[in-house]
UniProtKB/TrEMBL annotation:
SUPFAM superfamilies: (Trans)glycosidases
Domain of life from the UniProt record: Eukaryota
The entry's keywords: Glycosidase, Hydrolase, Signal
Family of the protein in this entry: Belongs to the glycosyl hydrolase 1 family.
The protein's name: Beta-glucosidase
N-terminal signal peptide: 1-26
InterPro entries: GH, GH_1_N_CS, Glyco_hydro_1
PANTHER family assigned to the protein according to its UniProt record, in alphabetical order: GLYCOSYL HYDROLASE, LP05116P
Keyword Hydrolase among record annotations: yes
PROSITE patterns according to UniProt: GLYCOSYL_HYDROL_F1_2 (PS00653)
């Protein structure tokens, strides 16, 4: 090892320890005392249609890509199970709303199943039974003053549209925006917060450039970028339809929600690389909407163009936006929707040369990421409890994008089940502390959402990972829901509008407080 390397390591270590020490000195005290949330701050929980509803073919619903995947390849999930019944929210929505009341929530985030409302995928035929289900749910919530926050698309694409290329087909801009218009018409009198699309990077990378989510296309380095462009334009078109045709009378807000991990450089040598990784991973979708210039991040455009040329492609594998599209996408979100879970370290070493033998997203960004084994973590392998990463992420969003309003639309922790979930409580508290730190520094964070209200179908993990504040008993026909300890702690946070690190709940009986 050369002398300069050793020196830089020492410098790095001392910097790091200063950061850690400084943080512990400055923040320890605050974290020992009760911290208040700002006036108007709102608390919620979230779920998604395929993960909780069940009723996969009930009353005229047609199949989505998740019905198709789990029926055609049953062991595409770890436990060979599917979402045919899931938590049966299609039938148990009243109990779901009762849980929201127990927690005292301000809002509940759920998603619409496209094929439940439009079984042909198109607006030629509206399925009244599907509409009735969502009307029942929304009206039941509003009875108790719980605001619906509705996601139009949380991954359950109509199978028919997938057969026509799904998000790689530019016609999806019309397919999606027609569907969005139907939803605004049907529910917009009562729904004032809309999310167009949940986690673009999960849809495009995991669905089209990998095998981790349906449709598991795995056409690397090509399909995920086609998806990205079409998805952003489809989102923007839906945004403008709402803005022009519905906002004047309905007066709500609309945006999309990003899945952003924090990427920390392993050493000072990796600072630039970590920034490139952030731009590839979520700047890909945030830069076109929130930057002053719009369009994909410059570092992405440059790297992919250079790689593509060297690989013998006739043009860059990253589709280009027209200037009209750049303008259409730029600014097409009333808030920065953020699903934030965890942190990775970024590094590069020489062994990366020749590491990937085909063009791919990871080859394009030329870095490796990992999580140190000593970071404590959840049942999900990718999910470590790293609150300082959440703080860094919030700070970067504030600094890079001119302090937009931020809605945290997912944050949560998985276990293997059981009611005593102290790890989940630790995680939620540590992340709310980091969020309060960011607010104190000036971040405009307005909402916080726990993923999830209850256990649900965790995609390719099936039911093996549990994210719920409420446990769901999948063995019981009633899908009995029981509050975990974390439900009692979250209830107290929502009630007191404060974080008390010493609060110990009485978990013997869950009640509904007056006014809920
Ligand atoms: C969210 O995604 C989803 O919006 C939600 O539906 C889900 O239930 C929740 O998280 C918990 O997972 O298989 O190791 O390659 C969070 C981002 C992107 C994290 C896909 C897991 C796959 C990891 N997710 N990723 S892996």
């Amino acid at each position: 090892m050369s002398l300069s390397l050793v020196l830089s390591d020492i410098l790095h270590l001392s910097l790091l320890s200063c950061i850690l020490l400084c943080e512990s000195e400055a923040l320890k005290e605050a974290r020992q005392s009760v911290r208040k949330f700002p006036d108007g701050f709102q608390f919620g929980t979230a779920t998604a249609s395929y993960q909780v509803e069940g009723g996969w073919d009930a009353d005229g619903k047609s199949p989505s890509i998740w019905d198709h995947l789990t029926h055609n390849d049953p062991c595409s999930t770890d436990d060979c199970k599917n979402g045919d019944i899931a938590a049966d929210s299609y039938n148990l929505y009243k109990r779901d709303v009762e849980m929201m009341r127990e927690l005292g929530l301000d809002f509940y985030r759920f998603s619409l199943s496209w094929t439940r409302i439009l079984p042909t995928s198109f607006p030629d035929k509206i399925n009244e039974a599907g509409v009735q289900y969502y009307n029942n749910l929304i009206n039941e919530m509003l009875k108790y003053n719980i605001q619906p926050l509705v996601t139009l698309f949380h991954w359950d694409l109509p199978q028919k549209l997938q057969e026509m290329g799904g998000w790689t087909n530019p016609h999806i801009v019309d397919w999606f925006s027609d569907y969005a218009r139907v939803a605004f018409e049907l529910f917009g009198d009562r729904v004032k917060n809309w999310i167009t699309i949940n986690e673009p990077s999960a849809v495009c990378f995991h669905g089209y450039g990998s095998v981790t989510l349906a449709p598991m296309l795995n056409i690397q380095g090509v399909a995920e970028y086609m998806c990205a462009k079409n998805l952003l334009v489809a989102h923007a078109k839906a945004y403008h339809i709402y803005d022009k045709e519905f906002r004047p009378t309905q007066g709500g807000t609309i945006g999309l929600t990003h899945n952003a991990f924090w990427y920390e450089p392993e050493t000072e040598n990796d600072v630039e690389l970590a920034e490139a990784v952030r731009q590839f991973e979520w700047g890909q979708y945030a830069h076109p909407i929130f930057s002053k210039t719009g369009d994909f991040p410059p570092v992405m455009k440059e790297k992919i163009a250079a790689k593509s040329a060297a690989q013998g492609f006739k043009r860059t594998r990253l589709p280009e936006f027209t200037s009209e599209e750049v303008e259409m996408v730029r600014g097409s979100s009333d808030f920065f929707g953020l699903n934030a879970y965890t942190t990775f370290l970024v590094y590069k070493n020489e062994s990366l040369e020749g590491y990937y033998d085909v063009p791919s997203f990871y080859d394009d960004y030329e870095a490796l990421t990992y999580q140190p084994t000593h970071w404590s973590g959840a049942a999900s392998v990718w999910l470590k409890d790293v609150p300082w990463g959440f703080y860094n992420l919030l700070t970067k969003i504030r600094e890079d994008y001119d302090n937009p309003p931020v809605f945290i639309l997912e944050n949560g922790y998985s276990t293997r089940g059981g009611l005593d979930d102290d790890d989940r409580i630790t995680y939620i508290r540590s992340h709310l502390n980091a969020l309060l730190d960011a607010i104190e520094e000036g971040s405009d964070i307005q909402k916080y959402t726990v993923w999830s209200l209850m256990d649900n179908f965790e995609w390719t993990r099936g039911y093996t990972e549990r994210f719920g504040l409420y446990e769901v008993d999948y063995e019981s026909p009633q899908r009995t829901r029981t509050p975990r300890k974390s439900a009692f702690v979250y209830k107290e946070i929502v009630r007191s509008r404060a974080l008390d690190p010493h609060y110990e709940p009485d978990t013997t009986v869950m009640t509904i407080d007056e006014g809920h």
